[in-house]
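Q: Predict the bound structure with magnesium ion.
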Amino acid sequence: MRSSNDTIAFIATPLGEGGIGVVQVSGPQATEIAGKLFKGKSASSRADLTKAASGGLFYGTIHDSEGLIDEVLVSVWRANESFTGEDLVEINCHGGIIAVRKIMEALLKSGAREGTWEELLDRADFHSDHKFQKEGLDFIQKEALLLLPRARTKLAANMLLTQYEPTANGLSQERRRLEGEVKRLKMKIMDCDTSEFTVTVALLLSGLEALVDSSPFGLALMNPLKVTIAGAPNVGKSTLFNALLREDRALVHHEPGTTRDYVSEYLSIKGIPLELIDTAGLRETDGVEKVGVAWARKLHQEANKIILVLDASRPITQEEREFVCTLDTQKVVPVLNKIDLGINLEVKELERLFSLSPCKVSALGGKGVDDLEKMLIKDFLSDIEKGPHRPIIFTQRQKGLVEEALDLARGFPKNKVCDCFTASEVCEKLDKLERLLHTALSA
Ligand SMILES: Nc1nc2c(ncn2[C@@H]2O[C@H](COP(=O)(O)OP(=O)(O)OP(=O)(O)O)[C@@H](O)[C@H]2O)c(=O)[nH]1
Ligand SMILES: [Mg+2]
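A: Predicted complex:
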């Protein structure tokens, strides 16, 4: 459905997550509908939204017939500059479910229709001949926009916006650049000019390698890592869960066997989204607790990382040794909890098992929790430092294509192409490489 005579409203951020909620209104009546609900606060914000220039940012409040809903920042984009190719109003409010829903309801009452993100993109495609995007959105840009509402952290949203922005140094531009290099090299070889062959192949290889290297970071930003908390009953798993979340979410009790059903919450560590799961203590037991333990084992198998909690104040038990052996040691982050009670456990035995020094914490007082956070995201520290404003692979589809392209590029001769046979073989491979890179854009 591509008709865009009506104006649609859409909640662009996951409900109840993050500090800010964004509601977008797109269509010919966008400024009129949003303008009916908006009251500017400062003198410069009193402007009538229907007369606002493109790029205008207004601070104020949103009201419905019953009164104030929320304090907001509103931006207005005119049709020739918005990504939808229509007048677009973006209302940034506080992230809670209630404010976002109430703003949405008020917009619907004022004449907007509830739309979907796909519909917004469809409109962008339909208007792809306007000034802002003469060439239309390519497939990578569309993927970035489609995933934007699913970004759980600001870092993930910034990464996607860089891959989307037509002027930013994102994946779409990098793909075009690499494809251009391939085309140029092919022409040169056809002209029997092999002078730049080695240098260009090295450039292609390093460009593709950098893209493949970016994929664990990009994929982790889009697919929260599953992190389970494992350990015997009463070692402080739920206390640690609450300490990492910085809220009393899970039940804590001195009686072993308190957690039976699992509890899961999302959290962000330096912008990396994680799904943290508190589970039942692992022990031989019966009744309802036995079901909880079976679930816990299944969750540990499916997890990307397992925080293994041990009570530092007492030696490891035989039962703990046995279940530790059933865990995938590659995924384990060992933690010694209750260090405030002293360390009476054989640390060397743990180091032998996991080739990792355990993180020493006191979940009760929050001591050492920062170190544990760093350990959980240690694979991404250098990526976080490099930031999100560069070409980054963010879907499995892109990863598969770029890996295939890299395999192909690695098959090129390391030295100059010196005879006709090699030249035609290389041209064939370059053709294939060009097609692969093109597919990334237009699939
Ligand atoms: N001294 C001390 N006590 C702790 C610490 N962490 C947890 N505890 C206490 O240990 C007891 C058990 O804590 P929980 O967090 O419920 O332990 P659990 O591993 O979730 O237990 P189950 O759900 O039964 O498997 C509680 O009385 C906590 O207050 C700590 O760092 N230091
Ligand atoms: Mg518990």
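A: Residues 197-222 form the longest helix (26 residues).
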